[in-house]
Amino acid sequence: MSNESATIVQKLWNFCNVLRDDGVSYGDYVEQLTYLLFLKLADEQSKLPTNSSSKIPYGLDWKSLLKESGTALEEQYVKILQELSNEKGLLGVIFRKSQNRIQTPAHLQRLIKLIDAENWSGMAADVKGTIYEGLLQKNAEDTKSGAGQYLTPRPLIKAIVAVMQPINSSISYNTSKQF
Questions:
Q1: 63 near 43, Cβ under 8 Å?
Q2: Cα angle: 55, vertex 56, 61; to 5 degrees
Q3: Which of 7, 62, 78, 135 could form a disulfide with 43, with the two C-beta atoms 3.0–4.6 Å apart?
Q4: Residue 146, Ramachandran bin (φ over 0: left; ψ between -120 and 50: alpha; else beta)
């Protein structure tokens, strides 16, 4: 895992611990994180020269979250989730049955600021995947959660691939190491 990925994973995991103390489960945390990252990425994409408009309706976008604080922020987030779940097409599917699980407005605002501080569009897809995998690994290591069923450790994946020696694979693994 790169230093950039490890740093972001640690930030997100530390905040997950805070939310868990408030009764937000790991699954709910990842769900809320996904909704917020979707909104942030849509905002970043709309600022690119090749894309002139956002697919997210005005007033239900990332900027509308940044303008609010306290209970107004919580109300805006609930409104966004509800209204986007009623949108037609893929947007409605993504937000279908979405609900706010973060009950403390200050924690919601802190998570939004943490997400806003990063340039997610500038990260390679591998980095985002590594961040997600890092969150899964952290959760699997957490003895209280018993979430090991969601993560196959990277060394085990490499060992399986090395043993199977897939045909036409462009992936090269060092098989001289003992697993």
A1: yes
A2: 145
A3: 62
A4: left
